[in-house]
């Protein structure tokens, strides 16, 4: 594929930014990928792993002449980096991101720039893993995964088209929706299960009477709790920036647990069977085995 962009800047060269960078570099979509961060050793490793071509800790150098800036920092750092780059950004530079919640990033952009930039294309790849950091970056991370773009009413169609083209070239399936709908859906399908996994591991860990309980876990526990090994900063920030929707779905889940507890205490075999069977049928129908 021939290059469609000259310079792409990655702000936050970890799993998500690193995988995006490596993918677009290997696909030949860009002449030069520069990484920005605060940790020289991490950025040097990114160069050695072929994730980026070069790095800088100077924001002016990072965004100067850049065609596209990809923000891949924890949600709590999005506003800071937007404010840091603002003085050096050209109005032509496309700004996009990979944050797990979208309304908060849009609000940050609005606050930093005064009005939403035309070249701002908020996004979220629905692909990742419990490992963070550039060492886990993988150019194939996004293949056959969905990427949700949540353009604002100000987003230019031309900017949306460029961002879409990059994700498609990385093998992703791109879908467009509004940010509020995005945040509601992913509170239910992603944020809630991560919190449940953290809570389960934490609860068992604190019940000392169970002794060395993790020694006695089987595959089911492993499957259910893999995501409890995810990064604490990232997940703290997701909760901080999508708390309303997450709290709502946690409460629904709490009600479901209360109802289930009653069925268990009452040994209601018929109701338990129906609940398990309906869940199994729904999962078997909708979740394709990999
Ligand atoms: N890990 C996952 O599975 C997924 C994560 N996301 C989102 O992608 C974003 C990045 O997540 P990961 O790549 O997993 O995290 P990561 O921890 O692997 O990478 C984040 C990078 O940002 C850097 N960073 C933090 N604050 C910074 C600042 N103020 N300025 C410059 N660099 C800074 C860190 O040093 C690190 O290199 C988050 O917003 C997360 O919600 C989205 C989809 C999946
Ligand atoms: O590890 C997993 O299976 C995930 O679900 C990764 C993930 C984490 C956060 C996102 O916003 C999207 C994907």
Automatic annotation (TrEMBL):
Superkingdom classification of source: Bacteria
Alphabetical keyword list: Oxidoreductase
Gene3D superfamilies linked: 6-phosphogluconate dehydrogenase C-terminal like domain, NAD(P)-binding Rossmann-like Domain
Name of one Pfam family that matches: PDH_N
SUPFAM superfamilies reported for this sequence: 6-phosphogluconate dehydrogenase C-terminal domain-like, NAD(P)-binding Rossmann-fold domains
InterPro entries per record: 6-PGluconate_DH-like_C_sf, NAD(P)-bd_dom_sf, PDH_C, PDH_N, Preph/Arog_dehydrog, Prephen_DH
Domain Prephenate/arogenate dehydrogenase: 6-290
PANTHER family registered for this protein in UniProt: PREPHENATE DEHYDROGENASE (PTHR21363), PREPHENATE DEHYDROGENASE [NADP(+)] (PTHR21363:SF0)
Protein known as: Prephenate/arogenate dehydrogenase domain-containing protein
Organism: Thiomicrorhabdus immobilis
Lineage: Bacteria, Pseudomonadati, Pseudomonadota, Gammaproteobacteria, Thiotrichales
């Amino acid at each position: 594929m021939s290059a469609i962009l000259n310079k792409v800047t990655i702000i936050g060269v970890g799993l998500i930014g690193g995988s995006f960078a490596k993918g677009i570099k290997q696909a030949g979509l860009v002449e030069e990928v520069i990484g920005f961060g605060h940790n020289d050793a991490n950025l040097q490793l990114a160069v050695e792993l072929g994730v980026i071509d070069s790095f800088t800790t100077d924001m002016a150098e990072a965004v100067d002449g850049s065609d596209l800036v990809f923000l891949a920092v924890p949600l709590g750092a999005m506003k800071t980096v937007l404010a840091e780059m603002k003085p050096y950004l050209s109005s032509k530079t496309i700004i996009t991101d990979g944050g797990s919640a979208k309304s908060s990033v849009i609000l940050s952009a609005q606050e930093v720039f005064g009005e939403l930039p035309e070249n701002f294309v908020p996004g979220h790849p629905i692909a990742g893993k419990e490992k963070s950091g550039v060492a886990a970056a993988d150019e194939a991370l996004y293949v056959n995964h969905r990427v949700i773009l949540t353009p604002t009413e100000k987003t230019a169609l031309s900017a949306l088209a460029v961002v879409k083209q990059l994700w498609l070239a990385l093998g992703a399936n791109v879908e467009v929706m509004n940010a509020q709908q995005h945040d509601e859906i992913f509170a239910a399908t992603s944020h809630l299960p991560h919190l449940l996994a953290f809570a389960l591991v934490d609860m068992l860990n604190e019940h000392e009477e169970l002794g060395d309980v993790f020694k006695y876990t089987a595959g089911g526990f492993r499957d259910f709790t893999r995501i409890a090994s995810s990064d604490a900063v990232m997940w703290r920030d997701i909760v901080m920036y999508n708390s309303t929707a997450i709290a709502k779905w946690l409460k629904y889940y709490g009600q479901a647990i209360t109802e289930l507890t009653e069925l268990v205490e009452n040994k209601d075999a018929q109701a338990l069977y129906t609940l398990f069977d309906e869940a199994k049928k729904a999962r078997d129908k909708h979740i394709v085995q990999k």
